[in-house]
Amino acid sequence: MAVTTGYGHGVDVLRDGIYSGVPAFVPVTRFDTSRYRVGVAAQGAAELDLDTELKTLTEEACKQAGLGGPERTDTLLVAARHADPAVSRLPREEQESRPISETAQWLARECGFGAAGRTYINACVAASAAIAEAGALISSGRQDRVVVVAGHLVDAESFTTFNAGKALAADGRLRPFSSGRKGLLLGDGAGAVVLEAADSRAEMSPLAYLDGWGMAGDAHHVCQPHPEGLGMARSIELALARAGLEPSDLDYVNAHGTGTPYNDSAETAGLHRAFGEHAERIPVSSTKSMHGHALQAAGMVEFVISVLALRSGRLPINSGYLGPDPDCRLDLVLDSPRERETQHVISLNSAFGGANTALVVSAA
Fold it and tell me: Is 256 a catalytic residue?
């Protein structure tokens, strides 16, 4: 796996950042924020180019996995990415001549893969949906190996949208599941993972196992989640069933947790619905409080962090916490990373339109 976030380029940089307890939010320098209510984000280098970064990360992940030319010819690539704001300003006929779906095809050609699949753009579940599709393709025997890439860089287009919706945290901190939470903050995110059938190569040394996935919708509202977390609960139940696990088997929940009043209370309701009596016993944190909301790449960044939690035995903190909210009764990881031998974690994401995903990741 390979990743870039507001902390910088590399898995080690991300690991050091999230376990430092210091959020990556800085003043935005990529564009002028003087007209916005908020001027901070977890922005990396101002000059980053998303396509270049996706290609670099894909090559890094493949090198780590030992995928040379012969292996790549039998490998499928699927992608998730943020739309190019420059294209959205073009006349309709020109937009249609430059579909974002070409991202997977372009990367496949550039990196020597034999085939390309979908490019997901379905908002905050794009990356996790792509990972789930890869899992389904492999577990069904249709593919031995799938490379998944995802990317989003903070841009003026997204900033304008979330600012207009008054969704950005005016106090400059993303405070998931906390009283006094004011909203979300955006962040850079890009990454690549190589998923393979467990028996595909004798020399393979896996970082972790993708044991289960679930996707479900509640179609409650165009941008608000169902207040009872129905879609979230269903996606969790599907993922656990596929993994053959019970809620009591989970050691950590990497929550979607955007720091907005609606999302966090609805997600908590979904966790209680899915986990029952275990809902307040399983450690929970939203690492968006550290690296920001990477939109279409959120599921990728948080998948990588879930693997880091498994491999390090340390659970990242839920930063920005001011105090308990009666609608968010959870065992939050606060103040400092929690040491815990970890076998199974679940990573959750939600998106506008009522879409929800859950990924179960287990120790190798």
Answer: yes
CA distance 234 to 149: 26
Residue 351: enclosing H or E segment and its boundaries? strand 344-351
139-149 per-position pLDDT tens digit: 999 999 999 99
User: Smallest Cα–Cα separation from 293: which of 119, 193, 175, 148?
Assistant: 175
pLDDT of residue 98: 59
DSSP for 188-241? -EEEEEEEE-TTS-TT---SEEEEEEEEEE----SSS--TT-HHHHHHHHHHHH
Q: Label the pairing between strands 2-5 and 189-196.
A: antiparallel
Q: Which of 9, 62, 111, 124 is catalytic?
A: 124
User: Contacts from 196-201 at CB under 8 Å and sequence distance 24+?
Assistant: 196/65, 196/138, 196/144, 196/145, 197/138, 197/143, 197/144, 197/145, 200/144, 200/145
Instruction: Give every residue of the chain whose pLDDT is below 70, as ranges.
Output: 84-88, 96-101
Q: Which of these is catalytic: 9, 272, 291, 293?
A: 293
Q: Are 181 and 169 in contact (CB under 8 A)?
A: yes
Burial class for 41, CB neighbours closer than 10 Å (0-12, 13-18, 19+): buried
From start to end of 43-109, where are the E strands? 76-81
The catalytic residue among 9, 82, 256, 272 is: 256
* pTM score over 0.85: yes
Name 32's Cβ contacts closer than 8 Å, sequence gap at least 6.
156
Helices 230-243/261-275 angle, 10° precision = 40
